[in-house]
Design a protein that fits this description.
four-stranded antiparallel β-sheet; Rossmann fold; alpha/beta; 10 helices
Length: about 325
Amino acid sequence: MDHVIDVKNVSKKFKAYENKGSGLFSFRRKSYLKRALNGVSLTIDKGETVALLGKNGSGKSTLIKIMCGILFPTSGSVRVLGLDPWEQRISLSRRIGVVLGAHGQLYWDLPAIDTFELMRKVYGIPKSDYQGRLDYYLDLLELRDVYKRQVRTLSLGEQMKCNFVASILHNPELVILDEPTIGVDLPSKQALRTAILESRKENGTTFLLTTHIVEDITMADRILALDKGNVIFDGSKRKLETLFGNKKVVELEFSETPDYDKYVELGKITKVEGNYLRMEADPKVLTSARFTRLLSKGNIIDYRVGEQDLSGILMRLYKVRGAKAPRGEGHG
């Protein structure tokens, strides 16, 4: 079976310039090639929901734009639904839906319904199918009181939900969402996540989303992490937790302010507040026997031991594997 997305050894370089100096010859700036992607290879299959992660400047947006046919790679090949994103961009656009952050398909001075009607005509959606899908998403995303108002009057969350509807009305096989919940209020975030999960369940839609939001990541079957233009992780959330979540989170509450220096040898102290201490400890260091002795000291009145959260695991991933990724810059 062909992959929905097939990226092979893709690199992308941009011409950039050094910061402008001062003096008579400051207008003559040296240029260099900045590598945004460095031999990236990956595949995504039908029905998968994949979270594409990375710090700012990691290459996420560049990769997304290459997949959509907006940018050309410097080298390598990309196939999306078996099509070349640049040579067959019109054919591809009929089979995918894209929301690039706040930059959507809505017209600022018109109501969202006008954009929805335009999508119906552009994609040739039969009226019965269109109305059924529109009603479904209007109810699911609570847009009944929104979609006939000027877009300029809508909140960021309402705009994002309307953009999502515009991207999915033609029932695309693949939906690419770039930061779909950034800056969006909590109810809108939850509604968008529900819509993604429902579309995947009902239609087998493949989703690729870039995000910094931990709750968005939990929807994904797979996590792809980029750093400095390199893929530094490709696997399930469970695999990520197994490889990089090897710390226990210990929270202690004392009857009186203790000497916190005594606890440094047990793990990394991440928070101190009055009589409260939070630390991350290696299970090999903080063994059950050692923890039992710790509790017997008498001045601990409450405690909790849990697993490291996903944000902490991702930080460890970037620290361990990101440091090994080449910086990808060179003068030219």
